[in-house]
Amino acid sequence: SSSSSSGGHSLLLCVHGCKSLTHESIELAEANAWAWLSLPCCLQAEHHLNPRTNLKVDDDMRFAMLCGAIAAKYNAGTVSSIDRRITGRGIVLTSLGRSAER
């Protein structure tokens, strides 16, 4: 872990973090009390849901549900979206990090 001793503010930005990279980046930010912003993509249901869960929804609904699971797991402060013309995977998750609590 690489903590910042300067007393400044840090932001970890993860754009289109595939598979486990979204989780790894958020966990790194959380471990260092950094703010984070994640724009997930390529999410694997088995990383978020009970293996016996059988999703019978379309891809957009599946993606939104998995982003919701990430937001809940990491206590995202904001869940928003960007224009679909920019990306089809436009759900944005953010947290101000623990440094904002100080």
Please summarize what this structure is:
This protein has 102 residues and is an alpha+beta fold.
Could you explain how this protein is built, in words?
With 102 residues, the protein is an alpha+beta fold. 25% of the residues lie in helices and 19% in strands. The protein contains 2 helices and 4 strands. Strands 1-2-4-3 form a 4-stranded mixed sheet, with helices on one face. Helix 1 links the parallel strand 1 and strand 2 (35-39). It is globular. The two termini are 20 Å apart.
In DSSP terms (H or I, runs of 4 or more residues), the helix count works out at 2
Side by side, the strands of the main sheet go: 1-2-4-3
Q: Which runs of at least 5 residues are low in confidence (pLDDT < 50)?
A: 1-5
What coarse outline follows from CA principal-axis ratios? globular
**Count of individual beta strands:** 4
Mean pLDDT: 86
The main sheet comes to: 4 strands, mixed
Strand and helix order? EHEHEE
How much helix is in the residues?
25-40%
Q: How widely separated are the two ends? A: 20 Å
Secondary-structure-based class equals alpha+beta
